[in-house]
Structure formats: C-alpha cells, structure tokens
Amino acid sequence: DTGVSQDPRHKITKRGQNVTFRCDPISEHNRLYWYRQTLGQGPEFLTYFQNEAQLEKSRLLSDRFSAERPKGSFSTLEIQRTEQGDSAMYLCASSLALSKGLTKNIQYFGAGTRLSVL
Amino acid sequence: DQQVKQNSPSLSVQEGRISILNCDYTNSMFDYFLWYKKYPAEGPTFLISISSIKDKNEDGRFTVFLNKSAKHLSLHIVPSQPGDSAVYFCAASPDSNYQLIWGAGTKLIIKP
After folding, report:
1. Angle A46-A50-A52 (CA atoms, 0-180°, nearest 5)?
2. Nearest CB neighbour to A48, from listed B44, B91, B98
3. Which residues of chain B, if any, have pLDDT below 50?
4. pLDDT digits (tens, 9 = 90+) for B9-35
5. How many CB atoms lie within 10 A of CB A59?
6. Contact map slice: A 77-116 vs B, CB within 8 A
7. Does A41 touch chain B (CB under 8 A)?
8. In chain B, whose CA is at the least distance from the CA of A31?
9. Residues with Cβ within 8 Å of residue A102, at least 6 apart in sequence
10. Pair A4, A23: CB distance under 8 Å
C-alpha cells in the first residue's frame, strides 16, 4: 500500500460544469476526510466518513457539494455547477479509529487535486 | 474566528541551528495537537503530536512543547537540515471531536 491516492491531480473546468474527484485511502483505514486548501491557508475541514457513514459535514459544504463512500473504501467528492470560488486544492486524508479514547487522529494525506474554475 | 494561529508566515534559519516554530490557539477544549510538514505539490505529512496531558514530546530531532496556560505550542527542530525546508502546519483536535483545526502554516527556509 503506497498511501492515500487522489485522482486527478489537476482539474481545469469552466464555471457551471460539474466535477468529481476520487480518493483511495490507506486500505486498513476506516476514516476518510475531505479538506479544502486555498493559497496561504491551512486545510479547511469539509466532511468525514467512518466506513460508509458520513458523520460530519462542515458549513463550508454547500448543497452543490456531495461526498460518498459507498462501500467504505474509496470516496468521491462531486461539485455541481462549479463557481470560481471553488478553485482550491482538495485534500483527502485517512486514519484508523480503533475505539473511543484510543484514536490519536493521525491523518495521512494524499497529494490533493488542484481545481481551477475558469 | 481563527482558533489556531501561526503568526509567522516564514522563518529563515541557518543549517545546523535550532528552528523554533510557534502556534497559538484559543479553544481550551482542544486536547490533541499535531504538527504536519508540507512540501510543494505534496499533501501534508504527519511529524509529531502531543496530547493535553503532556507538556513535551520528543521524536529524534523534533520536539513539541505545550504550554496549556498560555495556549501555546512550539516545534523545535535541532539541528536544522536543508531537507527541513517546507511549510509547517500546526493542527488541533477539539475534545470528543475528530475534526482537525489548522493554522495557516509557517514556511521554514534552511540556509546552507
């Protein structure tokens, strides 16, 4: 296992188009996170899954954004009707949650998908 | 409202000397703190962490110090090496919540 992988690495799209990104986590990890990062800022949390259940969504995740993790393995993040403000790096991370109190929340990140909306 | 702040956008240190990166937080419910390192075109890489029950954690050249009363933590790298040049992010985890809150990062430049 080579770590978290994200596809594509770069995506250029026109405003109004839909885009979908994929994340393959580390195989034994049960938690998967999506973050967005803009220039000069740290990652901002978007949402996370434990197995196939989406447990938390940030207020940043507008109704144009949807994330899925159908079989508890890979995840997709879709942005509908893209806007120029969606241009950012989208990062995926995974971690292994053992049980409450034992999770150290060390998240391992992919290289990200850079989205440019023209 | 920025709950995790890294007030130095960049830091330049001579190779072999100590690098000290600082981070302040405002939320007293944070109980777990992490440092990540990021190279260009790569995702953040976990470096070292500390829980709120400790005030120091060491791993090789990297030591993290936590001052809960001041809501301040720092990362010490000694000795600094050219490969340490990267952006360093401080992140915190709120109590009973697994979301990480991140600072804006500090770009560390190690001069030969």
Report:
1. 95
2. B98
3. 96
4. 999 999 999 999 999 999 888 988 999
5. 6
6. 91, 93, 97, 103-112
7. yes
8. B98
9. none
10. yes
